[in-house]
Design brief:
CATH topology of the largest domain: Rossmann fold
Number of helices: 11
CATH architecture of the largest domain: 3-Layer(aba) Sandwich
Largest sheet: 6 strands, mixed
Strand order of the largest sheet: 8-7-9-6-5-10
Radius of gyration: 20 Å
CATH class of the largest domain: Alpha Beta
Order of helices and strands: HEHEHEHEHEEHEHEHHEHEEH
Distance between the termini: 23 Å
Strand content: 15-25%
Structural class: alpha/beta
Length: 301
């Protein structure tokens, strides 16, 4: 049976309702998503921001605020610090961006006293439910790390495995993507892919199966894998995690899927103390709700 976002929501319900701290919560799209997340039993919320604006928006969208804790803080920078501290102190299970710019939101995530640093590398994972593909696809990193080194790629994989596990993928197959399927010394991404595969085979990157380099078609399309005679590969069109060589490749694929295909998707930041929901204002209502569900199911691990 195909496992999609409905399955993720059902897994959240198995472990109980989580709590999300929202920074600068006076944002209609975010409050709509928070309202729906509560209706679905995904998460309760602490709304940190301008209380007057929050109440005005809530009245317009018929959101009953008696169900939520509100912390009045009209200054968005201070609101982000107060909200992130809730997650830092264990009073919230995840942290979400409201009506503020990404730069300042990330500053709160990285704040030395109240933030969510773990000492490791931060990365981003996008999860897609795509028609015609019988499993979820995990894309990393398409939004945060511009030019990952080999060591960065190891950390990205390590950050993404728990997300796949939380979504029901026990031993995810990781495809380090490139334009070709063999190592070319002049193409560093293929050299890195071979090294990642070797490290995995030696047990130094556990909890997954890595096979690279792989072209995108060979990674996700079993028919293409058959046509290319890839019968000796560990991944034959059945990759779970697509590891991109840089942010340009990842972002282009991400936006191509979102804007050209009818899909369901959600995104979170990983490598933080709790999952961080960093959605764009252009993201759909459904994407925001899916991101809350993804964060909630990941927070339980």
């Amino acid at each position: 049976m195909k496992q999609g976002f409905d399955h993720i929501v059902s897994k959240v319900k198995e472990c109980g309702v989580k709590k999300v701290a929202v920074a600068a919560a006076q944002d209609e799209a975010v409050l709509e998503a928070v309202k729906e997340a509560k209706r679905l039993g995904i998460a309760d919320a602490v709304l940190v921001g301008d209380e007057g604006e929050i109440r005005k928006i809530a009245a317009a969208i018929r959101m009953n605020l008696s169900d939520y804790e509100i912390i009045h803080e009209p200054d968005v920078i201070q609101a982000s610090l107060k909200a992130v501290k809730l997650a830092h102190d264990g009073k919230a299970d995840m942290y979400m961006k409201g009506l503020m710019d990404t730069k300042n939101f990330l500053k709160s995530v990285l704040d030395k006293e109240a933030g969510l640093r773990t000492g490791g590398v931060l990365s981003h994972v996008s999860v897609f439910e795509i028609p015609g593909i019988d499993r979820l696809l995990f894309l990393a990193d398409v939004a945060f790390m511009p030019y990952p080194s080999l060591e960065d790629k190891i950390r990205i994989i390590e950050n993404t495995i728990p997300v796949a596990n939380a979504c029901g993928v026990a031993l995810p197959k990781v495809a380090p993507l490139a334009a070709v399927e063999v190592m070319n010394p002049k193409m560093q991404v293929t050299v890195d892919a071979v090294e990642l595969t070797r490290l995995n085979e030696e047990g130094k990157i556990p909890g997954c199966i890595i096979d690279g380099p792989l072209s995108l078609d060979l990674a996700i399309d079993p028919e293409a894998a058959r046509h290319k005679g890839a019968t000796g590969r560990k991944i034959q069109g059945d990759a779970d995690i697509l590891l991109f060589p840089d942010i340009h490749a990842g972002n282009l694929v991400y936006k191509s899927i979102v804007h050209l295909v009818k899909v369901k998707n959600g995104c979170i930041m990983t490598g933080t103390k709790v999952p961080v929901i960093l959605t764009s204002r252009s993201d759909t209502f459904e994407t925001k709700v899916n991101s809350l569900a993804l964060a909630a199911v990941t927070a339980r691990t």
